[in-house]
Please model this.
Amino acid sequence: MVVTHGSLQPTRSRCALTIGNFDGVHRGHRALIERMTAKARELSLPSCVLTFEPHPREFFAGASAPTRLTRLRDKLELLAAAGVERTHIARFDARFAALSATRFVDEVLVGALGVRWLLVGRDFRYGARRGGDFATLEADAARHGLTLESMPDVLDGAARVSSSAIRAALAAGDFALAQRLLGHPYTLSGRVAHGAKLGRELGFPTANIVLRRPPPLSGIYVVDAGERGPGVASVGRRPTVNPVDVPLLEVHLFGETRDLYGEHLKVRFLKKLRDERKYDDLGTLRDAIARDAAQAREYFATHG
Model:
């Protein structure tokens, strides 16, 4: 998959396109992408996704915006796996936010991306102050001679598959529901960084990943890191010793003894054991970690 970002220049190329944040690349997103890529093949056009960094709600709401399900790197990997040929990451800043609905279509969709076929949801809004809706997009599409199609919601039972529903499932520790809505296991990933090595002193060395944005879950979890094996992980701010402002993922892997500094680690979440809490001393903290590790080992013993 070709990934482009930054400013867009006028183009003579043409593409089939869908638009969105695609946070989590869940089942609803996959249905949208599958329809778009199928139509692109039918029309002999490149399949293209337009997404945004930061998410528009992060730009407008700052720290009160919803947590992200997926890091940009992981989102791009999921889009590529879904068959998208090109993803353009538009920088969502004050200039981009000020584009009128008409200019967004004229300059971004048609002028820069060369859209000939476009797929969006019926609730799609665009342009400054969300001034454009599906009806205005229909009019603009007709003006430019491009084909517009709407995508119905994807349902899980009677409920709409959505990023907000997945966040709620993760916050509740319901990983079975989260995986059903996502269509794939929930993971966190990142590059292992040097830490204070407190875990090693306590007898439970950890691989530490700084999370640039708050994740949709916190606490102590049973996890699996693929070829690096099973383990137990903490997601939070480490309240007992050396509290951190930015959330941290600390993973104790049962079968891994070598240092993983600088390596990329992807962790799949399987079960929540408990909430994060502050302990009175290191001895009490060590005992709690030992209980967590024992529970995690028991989970793997009973779940193969």
Q: What stands out?
A: The two ends are 36 Å apart (CA to CA). The CA atoms of residues 57 and 65 lie 6 Å apart. The chain is about 35% helix and 25% strand. The first helix runs from residue 27 to 43.
